[in-house]
Backbone:
């Protein structure tokens, strides 16, 4: 992983790409805003924040952006963990779904993010989130994270099956944005429930 000035520049660039303020980053990491400024100036980040740093900016940069190899996890014990693979119908009821899954419903994942006991995996269907997410991609979803502006989230309305969208927050208004311009932006109402935040994606070829 980068250190010093190079890491500080990488963090600054990631903040700009994500379109958030330093105060937003500080709130997400439960630290004070001056600490984020210090990260940028000195490139010194407490080791306890490294995994969160990768997952928080996962929607705009890859681990390589921070000098972490795509084949080298930030914590080796998080790599190659088995997580429940849910259907899109099950994602809306993930608490009950995960509790009843049999062993063959778990999939080995190259996770860089430290999963919680509620983390699950989905297989992308359709083209509404192309080019970032294509059909057959696998995504790791963390229900424990608080969704932030421009995060990719799993969300569902009433009893409909869950869907993958980008969360857009404009003041008090929330929108669900598909990345494929062929699909419309959806105004998010109280009928929508968020299942979790997408923290990683991967693909299986065989």
Residues:
């Amino acid at each position: 992983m980068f250190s010093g000035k190079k890491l500080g520049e990488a963090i600054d660039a990631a903040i700009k790409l994500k379109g958030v303020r330093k105060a937003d980053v500080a709130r997400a990491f439960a630290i004070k805003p001056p600490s984020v400024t210090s990260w940028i100036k000195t490139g010194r980040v407490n080791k306890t924040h490294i995994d969160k740093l990768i997952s928080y900016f996962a929607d705009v940069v890859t681990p390589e952006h921070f000098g972490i190899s795509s084949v080298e996890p930030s914590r080796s014990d998080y790599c190659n963990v088995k997580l429940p693979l849910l259907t899109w119908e099950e994602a809306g009821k993930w608490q009950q779904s995960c509790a009843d899954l049999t062993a063959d419903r778990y999939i080995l994942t190259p996770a860089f993010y430290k999963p919680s006991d509620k983390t699950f995996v989905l297989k992308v269907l359709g083209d509404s989130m192309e080019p970032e997410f294509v059909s057959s991609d696998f995504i790791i979803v963390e229900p424990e994270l608080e969704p932030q502006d421009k995060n990719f989230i799993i969300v569902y309305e009433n009893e409909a099956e869950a869907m993958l969208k980008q969360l857009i927050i404009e003041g008090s208004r929330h929108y669900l944005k598909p990345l494929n311009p062929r699909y419309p932006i959806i105004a998010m109402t109280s009928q929508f429930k968020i299942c979790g935040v997408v923290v990683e994606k991967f693909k299986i070829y065989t």
